[in-house]
UniProtKB/TrEMBL annotation:
Residues engaged in binding substrate: 137, 313
Underlying gene: alr
Cofactors required: pyridoxal 5'-phosphate
Active site: 40, 266
Function: Catalyzes the interconversion of L-alanine and D-alanine. May also act on other amino acids.
This protein's name: Alanine racemase
Length: 375
């Protein structure tokens, strides 16, 4: 897609914020435990390769991604750190995975059997066994299913390397920890049939690491919090200050005095109650700014301005407190004067989570990196 380099709408990514979030987290880990940065989906919209550099500078020792292409892009860019693909890769790509030293999540014996059919034995494929303790997404269902897979790995150690074992919690970002504890006890049951722990045992995403200092495991899969976003939205405070890395801004490209009684936007859902100043901002739902944010706000000159009328595909309209010049800065996410709009607030107003907002910003918005030279 074409990035809009001749349009004032931009995403700024603060590399120093990412480094600081990682530093804070590493300080809380047991000595020697690894932090793998989760940079799937273009680094949650922040830029895959750029974020990979920042997290390595800050001490991350590996990466997690979702799909094979993301892993290959990291290898092409020269990253030699461990990379774990968290989703299922088709077994036909087993040799490609092995050649590139890319580790993969596996949730069935059948997958291992398929993979060994295509694997040469010069370079073993690194396997992380996924345990379904209650997420219900991928993974072995119980010990009886797991045991034969472990035996199979042992019997095929020329082709397959049992590198890791893991699970994923579905409620780690909630105050009620009953389901979390149920998953944890299932995890421990699974582990009772693992004869020798592999190199990596990992259970923690951001929320688990922030709020459940579970000792199981020697690696964490740290995602949303490295971007400075609270996994719970605003429900549970973070144990340290998370510094948001992403800011979204634009400029007024058109302003007018709208006469009382005139309407704005598709469906004419907003009508001026009096003569008022209306500004047009060049960002819309094609850029990933949610369409349902009519009534939410942006910042101009440190003041909240309501979004009036429906958000269009490429533009939206705001009510200004007074006349502002074309070219005035508009902050959609981030700080302006003494005020701030947080990504979590945008998400809440759009009835979703910050994850969906950040990874939904399209390639049409250029990413600009601040503090990307390590000082
Ligand atoms: C995406 C993902 C993570 C990262 O989760 P955050 O909440 O962003 O920290 C960790 N583990 C798995 C299996 C994932 O799919």
């Amino acid at each position: 897609m074409n990035a809009g380099t001749h349009r004032p709408t931009i995403i700024e990514v603060d590399a120093q914020a990412i480094r600081e979030n990682i530093h804070h987290e590493i300080k809380r880990l047991h000595q020697g435990n690894d932090l793998f940065a989760v940079i799937k989906a273009n680094g949650y919209g922040h830029g895959l390769i750029e974020v990979a550099h920042f997290v390595v500078e800050a001490g991350a020792t590996g990466f997690c991604v979702a799909i094979l292409d993301e892993a290959l892009e990291l290898r092409s860019a020269g990253f030699s750190q461990p990379i774990l693909i968290l989703g299922i890769v088709e077994p036909q790509y087993a040799q490609l995975l092995a050649d590139n030293k890319i580790s993969v999540a596996v949730g069935s014996l059948a997958w291992l059997e398929e993979a060994t059919k295509v694997l040469q034995s010069d370079q073993p494929l690194r396997v992380h066994l996924a345990l379904d303790t209650g997420m219900g997404r991928i993974g072995f269902q119980d010990r009886d299913e797991l045991k034969p897979a472990i035996d199979y790995l042992q019997a095929h150690s020329e082709q397959l390397l049992f590198e890791g074992i893991f699970t994923h919690f579905s409620t780690a970002d909630e105050l009620d920890d009953r389901y979390f504890k149920l998953q944890l006890s299932r995890f421990n049951e699974f582990m009772s049939v693992v004869p020798k722990r592999p190199r990596y045992v990992h259970v923690a995403n951001s929320a688990t690491s922030l709020w459940h200092q579970v000792c199981e495991g020697n690696m964490i899969r740290f995602g949303i919090a490295l971007y400075g976003l609270n996994p719970s939205g605003e429900a549970i405070p973070s144990p340290y200050v998370l510094k948001p890395a992403m800011a979204v801004s634009s400029e007024l490209v058109f302003t007018k005095r709208l006469k009382k009684g005139r309407s704005v936007g598709y469906g004419a859902t907003y009508t001026a109650q009096e003569d008022e100043w209306i500004g047009t901002v060049p960002i819309g739902y094609a850029d990933g700014y949610p369409r349902n944010l009519q009534g939410f706000h942006v910042l101009v000159d440190g003041q909240f301005c309501e979004i009036v009328g429906r958000v269009c595909m490429d533009q939206l309209m705001i009510r200004l407190p007074r006349e502002y010049a074309v070219g005035s800065k508009v902050v959609l996410v981030g700080k302006s004067g003494d005020q701030e709009i947080k990504m979590e607030e945008v998400a809440e107003a759009a009835h979703t989570i910050s994850y969906e907002i950040v990874c939904g910003f399209s390639a049409r918005i250029p990413r600009i990196y601040l503090h990307n030279q390590k000082s």
